[in-house]
Specification:
The strands form two sheets. A nine-stranded mixed sheet has the order 2-3-1-4-5-6-7-8-9, with helices on both faces. It is built from 15 helices and 15 strands. The chain is an alpha/beta fold.
C-alpha cells in the first residue's frame, strides 16, 4: 500500500494491518519471525529446513513469497511457522508476537519510504514489541544499532551472535570455527568449511539460524546436520556455471549496497561486476570501497548507472562501462571476461523499472549463461 494513503487511513481511524498481522490472528501453533536488511531469505529458508527435520508441521511464509494468512487454515497446535518479515510488513502489526525473533542486521535501505535511518530502525525493532522475557530475540552483536537495542530496550531475552569477537554468552566465529558460549564456557560447534554456503555473511546467517532453532528446542546434532547439507538460496551468491574458464555468479538478491558488498567479498577471482537498477536513494561509497582490488570492471545499467559511475570515479575507480540494457551488459561481460575471471550479477539496486522483481532479473541472467 502507498505510504501516504496508509497515513491518511490511519489518520481517519481506519485500521491498516499487514498480511503478517492477519495471518498471526488466524494461525495456530508457534511462529519464528526473522527480519533485517540482508540475509533474511537464506536464514529463513535454513531455519525452515531445520525445523522440518524436528517438527511434523512446518510452514515457511511471509516476505519470502508465501502468504502467512493463506496457510493459516492449515495450521495446527503443533505447527511452527517460520516467517521472513520486511520493514513494510512490520509497519502494519498490532498483536503479532513471535516466540523467537531475529534481527540479522540493519543497514541503509528503503530510505525512499522510511526517509530516515531512525524510522527504518524503529520499523525493524517492531518485530519484538509484543515479546516478553519468556521469549527470545536473536541479535547481531556487531551491529551498533542492534547492540544498543539489545542492551537497553529489547523486551525479550537476547541471544547474541558475532562474527568478529568471542562472546561470554552467545554464538561466535573464531578463526574458521563456530562456537557457542554460556557463562564464559565455550563449546565448538562446527568448522565453516563443513557448510556449502560461502562468505562471512552466510556464516552470520548460520549462527543466527542455530540460535533460533536451539531456542526452539531442536537438538544441536539435528541443527548441524541440516546446515552441512543446506544449499545456497537461489539468486543469493548462487554459482551458475563455468563457461570458457569464466565462473558466473547470480546475486540478483543483492538489492542494496550492503548486500552487494557480501557478494564481492565472496569472490576469489578477478571479477566483472554488473551493477545498477532502480534508485532507492541509496549511497554507494562503501560498496565501491569494498571492491578492494577484486573488481576488474564495473558494468552499469538502469536508473542509477550515472550516479554509481560518479561515485566510483570519486573513489578512483575508472574501469566503468555504461550499458543501455541488461542484454547489452551481459554481452559485454561475455566479451570482456578472460579465463580465470568471474562475472558477478550483484546490482546493489532493486530491479524495478527493468524487471518486475529480482527473481526475474536473476533468471534472465542464468538463462543467458546456460545458453552460452
Amino acid at each position: 500500500m502507498d505510504g501516504a494513503l496508509a497515513l491518511r487511513l490511519r489518520g481517519a481511524g481506519v485500521p491498516v494491518l499487514s498480511e503478517i498481522e492477519l495471518g498471526f490472528r488466524s494461525a495456530k501453533g508457534q511462529i519464528i519471525g526473522i527480519t533485517g536488511t540482508n540475509g533474511k531469505t537464506t536464514t529463513t529458508t535454513l531455519v525452515g529446513e531445520i525445523m522440518r527435520a524436528a517438527r511434523p508441521s512446518v510452514f515457511v511464509v511471509g516476505n519470502i513469497g508465501f502468504s502467512y494468512a493463506g496457510i493459516a487454515g492449515e495450521t495446527k497446535e503443533d505447527t511452527v511457522c517460520v516467517a521472513e518479515i520486511s520493514s513494510f510488513q512490520l509497519e502494519g502489526i498490532e498483536t503479532f508476537h513471535p516466540g523467537v525473533s531475529a534481527i540479522l542486521n540493519i543497514t541503509p535501505d528503503h530510505l525512499n519510504r522510511h526517509h530516515t535511518m531512525e524510522n527504518y530502525i524503529a520499523a525493524k525493532e517492531r518485530i519484538t514489541e509484543n515479546q516478553t522475557k519468556e521469549d527470545f530475540a536473536v541479535l547481531n552483536y556487531e551491529d551498533a544499532a542492534l547492540r544498543a537495542f539489545g542492551q537497553e530496550r529489547c523486551p525479550a531475552q537476547v541471544i547474541w551472535f558475532s562474527s568478529a569477537r568471542a562472546l561470554a554468552d552467545g554464538y561466535y566465529l573464531q578463526g574458521e570455527e563456530i562456537f557457542h558460549a554460556q557463562g564464559g564456557r565455550a563449546q565448538r560447534l562446527m568448522n565453516i568449511h563443513e557448510m556449502r554456503l560461502v562468505g562471512l555473511c552466510n556464516v552470520e546467517n548460520v549462527m543466527a539460524a542455530i540460535a533460533m532453532t536451539s531456542a526452539m528446542g531442536v537438538p544441536m546434532e539435528t541443527i548441524l546436520s541440516v546446515i552441512r547439507t543446506f544449499a545456497p538460496v537461489e539468486h543469493r551468491i548462487e554459482f551458475v556455471a563455468t563457461k570458457r574458464g569464466v565462473d558466473y555468479y547470480n546475486d540478483s538478491k543483492g538489492t542494496n549496497p550492503d548486500a552487494a558488498i557480501q557478494g564481492i567479498r565472496a569472490m576469489s577471482r578477478p571479477t566483472i561486476l554488473i551493477g545498477g537498477g532502480y534508485d532507492k536513494e541509496s549511497v554507494f561509497d562503501e560498496w565501491i570501497e569494498a571492491f578492494d582490488g577484486k573488481v576488474r570492471e564495473l558494468v552499469l545499467i538502469g536508473q542509477t548507472r550515472e550516479k554509481i559511475a560518479a561515485c566510483a570515479r570519486a573513489h578512483g575507480f575508472t574501469a566503468i562501462t555504461l550499458c543501455d540494457s541488461f542484454e547489452e551488459a551481459l554481452e559485454h561481460c561475455t566479451a570482456a571476461a578472460r579465463e580465470g575471471d568471474a562475472v558477478l550479477l550483484s546490482p546493489a539496486c532493486a530491479s524495478w523499472g527493468m524487471f518486475p522483481n529480482y527473481e526475474v532479473r536473476g533468471q534472465v541472467f542464468k538463462e543467458y549463461v546456460k545458453n552460452l
